[in-house]
Design brief:
The protein has about 290 residues and is α/β, with parallel strands linked by helices. Helix content is about 45%, strand content about 15%. Helix 1 links the parallel strand 1 and strand 2. The radius of gyration is 18 Å and the shape is globular. About 45% of the residues are buried.
């Protein structure tokens, strides 16, 4: 899956002031990513506020992204649940036309054992015809996918081709890179440690800040993949304050504020999420204006 190396983005879902889906803004956001060198798009991930979308809205988001992308870059579909049986049934009835892979989060809230996590993804892998990228994000799921579990899944199932590793632990990321088969994609899910992960052998990133500043962040990732370390770190240190800011009051509050400032969509979220504070919006505006 070389086409999933580099910079992917976890695309937001734009809303109008009445909180309805803004299809025109979504089309504009897709085009913005493609025009600014993003390598692939992840639809309906956590950043997309997928937990607050209806089934009909999710289908509209999928259709809009597929049609606007028109095959120009790969697409990954976010699908996950803490109910394995329900997720398997959803996979079996989903139309995957236009999508190249599935991103599936580790079961949340239930806090399964490592064996439970393995069996969950075994069921998913056996049900899904598309390549699967695992998603480890203990800050949201309350359980960590350990290196041995990831390595076993990577070796046992040919269609499990990578992991979005978002624990924020560089040591664990390096251990995964070492323990998994050659060609397995260990993808950063933490914007701040993307560059060191890439330099350690990672495949790139599925990013939040990159969708707001795609040229700068994708350039950094590409320089890292080319082992142009000094040039890459120069951009990293320019981006670092912005990475801290966009997550200061949660995701996607920060990145939606950036998009509104760029005129790409309204700064609207669905409850229980709310807009970034005015003070944070001002700090993000200053960062955007000063980024070279």
């Amino acid at each position: 899956m070389k086409n999933l190396k580099g910079t992917g983005v976890a695309l937001i879902t734009p809303f109008k002031e009445d909180k309805s889906l803004d299809v025109e803004a979504l089309e504009n956001l897709v085009e913005y990513q493609i025009e600014n060198n993003i390598d692939y798009i992840v639809a309906l991930g956590t950043t997309a506020e997928s937990a607050s979308l209806s089934k009909e809205e999710k289908e509209l988001v999928k259709t809009t992204i597929v049609e606007k992308t028109a095959g120009r870059i790969p697409l990954v579909l976010g699908m996950g649940s803490n109910n394995t049986k329900a997720l398997v049934e959803e996979i079996k009835t989903t139309n995957f036309d236009g999508f190249d892979a599935v991103l599936s989060v580790s079961p949340y809230y239930n806090k399964p054992t490592q064996e439970g996590i393995y069996q969950h993804f075994k069921a998913v892998a056996e049900a899904c015809d598309l390549p699967i990228i695992l998603y480890n994000v203990p800050g949201r799921t309350s359980s960590n996918m350990e290196v041995a579990t990831v390595a076993s899944l990577a070796k046992d199932f040919d269609n499990i081709i990578g992991i979005k590793e978002a624990k924020g632990d560089l040591v664990q990321a390096m251990q995964m890179i070492k323990a998994t088969p050659e060609g397995f994609l260990v993808i950063s899910g933490d914007d701040m440690i993307t560059l060191p992960m890439v330099l350690a052998g990672g495949a790139g990133v599925i990013s939040v800040i990159a969708e707001g500043f795609p040229k700068a962040f994708s350039t950094m990732v590409n320089l890292g993949l080319e082992r142009k370390v000094d040039e890459a770190y120069k951009i990293h240190y320019q981006m670092a304050p912005g990475i801290e800011l966009i997550f200061e009051e949660g995701n996607p509050a920060g990145i939606k504020s950036v998009f509104e400032q760029k005129g790409l969509c309204k700064n609207e979220l669905r409850l229980p999420l709310v807009k970034a504070s005015e003070s944070l919006q001002l700090k993000l505006k200053e960062f955007s204006e000063n980024l070279k």
